[in-house]
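Please check the following.

. . .
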Amino acid sequence: MDVLQQLWTYYAQNGGYVLQEFFRHFLMSAYGVLFAAIAGVPAGILIARYRKISGWVFSVTNVIQTIPALAMLAVLMLVMGLGANTVILSLFLYSLLPIIRNTYTGIVSIEQAYLESGKAMGMTKLQVLRMVELPLALSVIMAGLRTALVIAIGITAIGTFVGAGGLGDIIVRGSNATNGTAIILAGAIPTALMAVIADLLMGWLERVLSPVKNSKGRTPDANAV
């Protein structure tokens, strides 16, 4: 109960600061995933067209994914210096794998009959992509974006070590303070809530945007891919 009282007191005294870092944390995560989507979705479409290069692309993105986040930040910091841009670039690199993989999976999983129907109607390749392939693959692509955003929110917390701010600042401050459990929770709880809310919102957006419904009117579970 004592920790809860300290937590409540911290929020009462520093609510504005926590809210500011909350939005800073979210924006860094969102920008990293947005830039990864701009690059990753076209890359996924490209390797779905030229599948011989897919192995190389996945090998590179898998290697990036295995690099510890702190090591990635340290290397990028040497090039870009301190600040939010270093974190955003790191999130961009980490978000590429789920976005590219899901885009690729969504495109190659489309039944050939749908593509042939589009061609039979006189559609160009670009029209088939825009009007057939992307709508049918949308739920899988959205699942990749959803995964990337949740991962990015967690990684952004360590951006404090390169001077980027965010809720990680509060967590680190608590870890360095005497009896800082309440301060750690003051940063950790909003971070967890952000990840849960982002996941729910992206799941809702996935269902709303997907034109593919099953017999009960629900979108198939793209997370199973």
